[in-house]
Amino acid sequence: MNQFIGYQAGTSWIHQLSGASKFLFFLLTSIAAMLTYDTRLLLAIALLSLLALALARISWASIRWVIYFASFFAAMNLLMVYLFAPEYGVDIYGTRHLLWAGIGPYSVTQEQLFYLANLFLKYVATLPLALVFLLTTHPSQFAASLNQIGVPYRIAYAVSLTLRYIPDVQEDFVIIRKSQQARGLDLSAQQPLLARIRGNALILFPLILTSLERIETISCAMELRRFGKEKRRTWYWSQPWTWQDYLLLGLALLTLILAFYLMWAQGSRFYNPWQA
Fold first, then answer.
1. Which of 147, 193, 219, 264 is the most buried (most CB within 10 A)?
2. Is the pLDDT of residue 45 over 90?
3. pLDDT at site 30
4. Is 275 inside any structural domain?
5. Phi and psi dihedrals of 98, rounded to 5?
6. How far is CA 12 from CA 60, 137, 185, 229, in A?
7. What is the pLDDT of residue 188?
8. What domain range is 162 assigned to?
């Protein structure tokens, strides 16, 4: 079974980095991508994200459904933006270059397409980074790294448990789904889409019960071991930072500073190629 959101062991350069440096890079770079609408910076971040995904050597089979799912919602988001605000790009950039007259208010302009392209670049800039971080960072090593940079170990351990729990939820979902199919519930591709959606929705209730039971078991086990009694703790997975981690952090800070500088220099979050 493919655990499409969970740690995958590897020997790539990205796997060897500290979990904290990868998290800070993902966080700061994502903030920069969310803040700016400068196409040049977004394109650079998107290319960097795709390069990181390639360097991590993550198999396509393990992430394809995440990509399909995110692409579907990205397409729906772009469509909704156009349907509810077909002239929003014109309002932002202050010019109007008509490409197709359309029907009623639904014309196609260069400005609207440019704005939608920037929205699409935001997805490309952030989604690969999130996948690289989740699939190349061991939860225990990440928790130790968070504690190293000052995060309380109780919070760091909670994050570690969350990352560990995501693949387990998927495994439980697949087990329950196979059990339902063995009892006659057809969830194959031969069924209509709505029927499959209703069938998968029926799995959520037993999945929630299984999750609550597991949470209770983990909580009791931690209480029996007096977790959280001391103010500090040691970590088996503790990893010192190397020059590569500091380089990654510097690149993230540079990206964020560049985003703020471009907004200050242009007087706006938007890069306007039609501005004289």
1. 147
2. yes
3. 93
4. no
5. -75, 130
6. 16, 12, 42, 37
7. 66
8. 19-266
